[in-house]
Amino acid sequence: MKILVANPNTSTGVTDRLVAAGKMVASPGTELLPMTASYGVPYIATRAEAAIGSAAALDMLAERRGTMDAAIIAAFGDPGLGGARELFDFPVVGMAEAAMLMACTLGRRFGIVSFSRSLEPWFAEIVAWHGMTGRCAAIRTLDEGFKSIDDVQEEKEAVLIDLALRTVTNDAADVVILAGAPLAGLANKIRDRVPVPLVDGIQAAVVMAEGLVRMKPRKATAGTYRRPGPKDSKGLSAALANVIAHRDS
Amino acid sequence: MKILVANPNTSTGVTDRLVAAGKMVASPGTELLPMTASYGVPYIATRAEAAIGSAAALDMLAERRGTMDAAIIAAFGDPGLGGARELFDFPVVGMAEAAMLMACTLGRRFGIVSFSRSLEPWFAEIVAWHGMTGRCAAIRTLDEGFKSIDDVQEEKEAVLIDLALRTVTNDAADVVILAGAPLAGLANKIRDRVPVPLVDGIQAAVVMAEGLVRMKPRKATAGTYRRPGPKDSKGLSAALANVIAHRDS
Amino acid sequence: MKILVANPNTSTGVTDRLVAAGKMVASPGTELLPMTASYGVPYIATRAEAAIGSAAALDMLAERRGTMDAAIIAAFGDPGLGGARELFDFPVVGMAEAAMLMACTLGRRFGIVSFSRSLEPWFAEIVAWHGMTGRCAAIRTLDEGFKSIDDVQEEKEAVLIDLALRTVTNDAADVVILAGAPLAGLANKIRDRVPVPLVDGIQAAVVMAEGLVRMKPRKATAGTYRRPGPKDSKGLSAALANVIAHRDS
Amino acid sequence: MKILVANPNTSTGVTDRLVAAGKMVASPGTELLPMTASYGVPYIATRAEAAIGSAAALDMLAERRGTMDAAIIAAFGDPGLGGARELFDFPVVGMAEAAMLMACTLGRRFGIVSFSRSLEPWFAEIVAWHGMTGRCAAIRTLDEGFKSIDDVQEEKEAVLIDLALRTVTNDAADVVILAGAPLAGLANKIRDRVPVPLVDGIQAAVVMAEGLVRMKPRKATAGTYRRPGPKDSKGLSAALANVIAHRDS
Amino acid sequence: MKILVANPNTSTGVTDRLVAAGKMVASPGTELLPMTASYGVPYIATRAEAAIGSAAALDMLAERRGTMDAAIIAAFGDPGLGGARELFDFPVVGMAEAAMLMACTLGRRFGIVSFSRSLEPWFAEIVAWHGMTGRCAAIRTLDEGFKSIDDVQEEKEAVLIDLALRTVTNDAADVVILAGAPLAGLANKIRDRVPVPLVDGIQAAVVMAEGLVRMKPRKATAGTYRRPGPKDSKGLSAALANVIAHRDS
Amino acid sequence: MKILVANPNTSTGVTDRLVAAGKMVASPGTELLPMTASYGVPYIATRAEAAIGSAAALDMLAERRGTMDAAIIAAFGDPGLGGARELFDFPVVGMAEAAMLMACTLGRRFGIVSFSRSLEPWFAEIVAWHGMTGRCAAIRTLDEGFKSIDDVQEEKEAVLIDLALRTVTNDAADVVILAGAPLAGLANKIRDRVPVPLVDGIQAAVVMAEGLVRMKPRKATAGTYRRPGPKDSKGLSAALANVIAHRDS
After folding, report:
1. Do the Cβ atoms of B232 and A51 come within 8 Å?
2. Which end of chain D is more exposed for a tag (fewer CB within 10 A), N or C?
3. Distance (Å, rounded) from C-alpha F176 to C-alpha F184?
């Protein structure tokens, strides 16, 4: 099966890391298709950037529809996820969502560790949107700058491990999510240095996207994720305007 | 003082209604500046459209920054509100937010009545985002089509009154919010036909925007609404890119 | 328009501060009518005193009914607010309520700072009564005595600023409410020494009371704030007994 | 031991019913001391009347302090309970509180059935104040008038049973509380006509008051129920003013 | 009346302590019948052990049915309580449940103090199961080993007092529950060394069990605690299999 | 990889259905190992039976430890899941848990449909235990008897579809979980007759168990799922006693 890894950030180096980490858990026969946003910011870190990234994610999925079996929105705050589920008939999985859901099978409450202080409000909102606030022990983030978003996980490895340890000791987390596309693959490397299970977002998303393809759930024609009726628009990308106008079939 | 009424829908007829209804409660000396989105859909009704409208709202406020004392994001789901509060140093009020907060002073729980079934998921999410789920008795919406978004409030007046009555009788609402920019001004007209207070979103927003200008709260330099540091971007509107890059002063 | 500032504490010095601070945000044409409780304690600080103050607030509003367009119950815990909304047909706003609602437009969560440790349980209960617990980051209070309730804001200014800073740094408050009638007007003075917006309760209440008068919501004849039927009583003030018995028209 | 049954309503007929019903579960050696409010309304049914009743309850307990081992505030909404726990060093139990706590041992969620529609808002607030909203299946009340508060339980017995049955069938209540002082003793009479356990508020309160006296918990000198420091007041009853001023020993 | 004290731990020394502490609050005429589990672990401390203890508790009550008026499941996590309420027609009270419910009458929020770190997850789950999470300030436990479960309360008295003080000072607990069967009777001994009321689980349970017997609630024939229909089983104790198959009458 | 399908019910026919349905989504190379409880009831339906089944599930996993890569507790209420995660170092997944987590990726709220009214309390408790109450729209169950647990899904197919439709129409469910081991495989058969996605519990569990094996999370040595220290016991199965005593390596 083919799974689109849609990175709504503009950094291709991050996309490469996502695909590499995802492949470690993909089943034989699963192909991960990389895609990087053509507009926006190198890495989404605020509510404002997430608003832009949400629109970008919808553009990306609209452009590639018909070429894959499922899609992953590969930024931790799941920009555009709700809208994507309305518009498209293939399964769409968010990276924050998948990480949190898999983490639920590994502990009572999970901690979230990430690389930038500015991410906290956005992350807190996506945790709440998924109804997971009660299972989230804490969100802990780096409070210092870094050189390059592509290599932040190597540069800050020691500090990130320390944050993970603190979510265990101080926040009573049973499991730690390493959050944010730039941290893809880090869980495997530091696995033995943290005393609780670690969850890698893209790996969780690949597992869940594969599972959804295999379970073959139908597209809803009722409920809040049914496809909206056709509608005119102006000024949108051709691909997205076509989907909204039902000119996509 | 000058208050921007930024309508993130593309229908100018709705913008006219918003300004007319707002003027009914504005203080002498307050000027409401109308603005209509240049791209998007005639009226936002789904999560996908809200994602697009969120980006549009940020573009609109970036374009007009420096010309007003406060801004209202004049669509009931408050698209882009969180991001706007990060980026800008003037007060920004959402229409759903203002309606709900004023409604809290008029009853234990409020009902929300609107004109399209497809709005419910988006509205439910904005109610939750504001932490108001516990004060919301119900969201009730029309389940039938209408001819024109500009005149839906006249065409469906009787049915909307009936929905308001049902939120009182069946859902125990103490107050009813008439939600959605296209219903601006309706509350004044039907006031005597519903046995509980009605709240008009744009009127509530004008009241709160004026109040914030008078209270002169400072722009946060700490907390989750502090302004993010400067950042490069690509493919965004010049106005918004400049704000994000701190090239706006 | 005329707005009654009903101070359910017995200290007239506090009433003076309330009116002075309120005038700073009132629109031209708005008159604030001061009133001080004739029985009770100098400043309400406990659940027991709040019970007494609740009855006093109802007495005060009953006595002055017909002379104003709206009333503010000018103690932070909003004593008697629910009962007042049942009995009277003019808008009534609580100072805690107004402060919290305005604070919601300025941040994700607000901190509450006040001048006496004994206030915390009462404040926590009014936060919960308004359904605002989820938006309240912390309640922090002075833990030391003071000389005079009339001048506590000058005497303890430095410590109060320190408490505000701690709600920002330790409790992640995005906005700080300076709570309690004796702190009226302090927000304007220390505005630049706290890195997040400050909210003054009486100013928020004036803004919301004015807004309600302009929005002209009808008195409920259904729902939990409809007026109860006439009832006999014994031993109450004549003014209140008349209202309860519907002898007030 | 001696337990004060302080009825904050002014109807002595209701006080008689309370004592009679309470005696059915009291241990040998327990004496129930009746007391009826000297001011207020015949039966508290609204938030405004509860405010008055809260002050009355504190007056009653202040007047009788030193003559009993524990006190019951014998109105279902527990008027003045929080304040009483601050001021006095003997155990004080609320009738709503005791009924709900005992009901928790008999079912997952309880229904509340009472005799007047106007009681619902007050009851809902006391349920929330006790943190019991999640265990409350529904509050169902009579929607018709009655002849005398003293005999409402006989007059409306059939309708009250019907309401109890509906909380079981429609609201999934596992247990039903017959709420309000005027229904004291009804549970014993209709026990076999409702298929789930019934709880009588005064009986639950007698059980818990007795238990507290036997368990001998100390008066808190820390926490939110520690006694406040002495304070001057004006215009209060001598008994209450003395307690507030610490002139009671 | 006769009340079974069913200790689902295998340590008879603990059973002795339970009965001794319970007798201190029992009414004249109440007999406490001791019973100790015949299989399981000396003291239940984990979710796995609680699963085993739940089955054991049902076996114990099935074996003794018909010989008592009410039963107490005398381990703090209330193993088997829900199932016992389904199967049996006499009142069954859990020790955690009774302690928390009585604690609610003594403070806004209670702290729980116990003797082993491994108990925390189980305790947290039973607090949540009872819907009491909002009233629980903290669970604090010893983090060090002890010599004998029978005498842990003497050996660790000083540390347990220190934990209690910390729940008051750091967690704002108004009342402290000394949790776990091995701490039965400790509250009476250290009462004066903690500034808030202490609650002993077995004493609370005796009070509530007595009260339920006196209040004579009927066995539910509807709702979630109605008795399930007869069912075959295999491999269970004869007593329990008979109850499940309705061969018990 | 090998995944144990541990059915804590005693009906082997149900085990067969579970394995057949699970195979439809298993990856090539995954082997599902069936196991049926040797004691207990044919199908767990009450809290009491769940207590017994929890102990049975631990016995089953203890007996088979070392022979598989992961285990599924194949009854919808996840009996023994928390204890299993403490005791064992391989991943353990509950069927209710997996169904709810996968359902979260398909809708805002899920409905649960099952075959026996007596299941509702147990199901409601496991939903709450997983912190999923906020995402559960309703639990709807058959209210009529059936001939054989092995074939209930064929016998009651029409009624079960009707219940599913009602959770969509009346309860606003976006996705429906067909709950209970006896319904394994039904989702595939009725997929086109319900307008929202259906989730089959065993299929969800297989997907998540496979994913966990691929993600290789470490066994916790800290947090609430760390393995408890060794402990003596009496009267337990040899396999389980050995695990509890750390005699299993």
Report:
1. no
2. C
3. 14
